[in-house]
Every structure is written in C-alpha cells, then in structure tokens.
Amino acid sequence: MCGENPPVIYDIQAIQQAVEHVKAHLMTLHAITGSDTASAIFGQGKKKAFLLAQKESLDVLNVFENSGSSKDDIACAGEQFLLKLYGARTFTTLDKYRYTRYNQSVSRSSLSSCLKLESLPPTCAAAAQHSYRTYITVQQWRENKLNPTDWGWRVYDNMMIPVETDKDTAPSSLLNLVSCGCKTGCGK
Questions:
Q1: Whole-prediction pTM value?
Q2: CB of 135 closer than 8 Å to CB of 70
C-alpha cells in the first residue's frame, strides 16, 4: 500500500451526466479561462466558469464553436460571458462594470491598502482581443486553420505575442498630464 488513504473510485457515468448540458462548451470554457494558447483572466478560474455553465444556459458560447462567426459576434459573445462570469447581472458592458468596480475599490481602499488593478474586469477592447484568441484556439482544436494575426495575435521580433488591446490606454490629454514627453529634464 502506498498510503493509509483508501483509493478513490469515481463513477464515470455520474460525471458524464453532470456535464451533459455543458459538454458542448467544454473546449470554449477551457480556452476562455486560460489555456496554453489563450491567456487566463485574473481571479476567474475554470471551476467558477464550469459552475456558471451548470447553473445557467451559456448559448452565447456557441459563437466560439461556429467556424463562420464574425469578429463582432465573437467580441459580443465574449463580453456577455465575461459579464456573467464576473457576476455583473445589471451591466451591459464591461467598461461600465469596470468603472463601477474601480470606484467601489477606490472608496474601500485606504492608504495602507493598495488597489489591485488586475482584479478589475478587462476593458471591452481587451476582452475582444481575448475572445479572438479564444476563438482561434477552439477553431484550431477543431482543426480549422486560421491566420493568428487576424485573431488577437501579432508578430513581434519573430515571435507571436498577444494583442492586449487595440485602444489607447487613456486619452492623450490625460497621458500628457502624466508625462510631458520632453527629451530633457524640464522639471514639469
């Protein structure tokens, strides 16, 4: 005997029955919550996504399984799923929910605690890129060949790297307040 604990026996039929209504989305759930080729979402793991799929219909994920889905449909489906995953029932966009969560976090944080930006949901633009990478991952698993640079990846220094967003991080007027862009020490 290897140890004092008795061996665990799993009822594979019970497991199959438990995942029956989510099995069509298992690849998508795996990819959207992080896989070898799609990034993970901070604090939103596979178990939480699977439990969500068990509780409610996730027909919105059908878009990721369809080989002819449009980028708009993929971005919309990804955003709808992420809103559900974050528990944002009354919000229609990730940007609005992110803003609300940011304000809530700032109002709760004190000088001794620090706001963890990574705990905020992604922006709509970042979620769209993540959704594109999820889509191409699922399609590749289904043996559909797509060009990665059309689906959330770019070539940099002869390597494929993820496109994080296609939007500016902040309005240029705000960025100019943070950094004036002078080449010498102007003292601003």
A1: 0.81
A2: no
Q: Could you tell me the CA-to-CA distances from 127 to 41, 120, 152 in Å, in that order?
A: 10, 12, 10
Looking at this protein, which amino acid is placed at residue 183? K
Of 74, 95, 81, 40, nearest to 150 (Cα)? Answer: 74
Angstrom CA distances, 67 to 26, 29, 30, 43, 132, stand at 16, 17, 18, 29, 12
Contact 42, 118 (CB under 8 A): yes
Question: Kindly report the CA angle at 138 between 134 and 141, in degrees rounded to 5?
Answer: 140
Cβ–Cβ < 8 Å for 138, 123: no
Two tokens at 158? 């002869």
What distances in angstroms separate CA 17 from CA 14, 47, 49, 112, 142, one per listed residue? Answer: 5, 17, 18, 49, 24
pLDDT one-digit tens code per residue, 113-148? 677 788 899 999 999 999 999 999 999 999 999 999
Q: Which candidate, 68, 71, 62, 72, places its Cα nearest to that of 28?
A: 62
Residues 149-157, mean pLDDT to the nearest whole number: 95
Q: Are 70 and 103 in contact (CB under 8 A)?
A: no
Write down the pLDDT at residue 168.
81
Nearest partner of 25 among 178, 141, 188, judged by Cα: 141
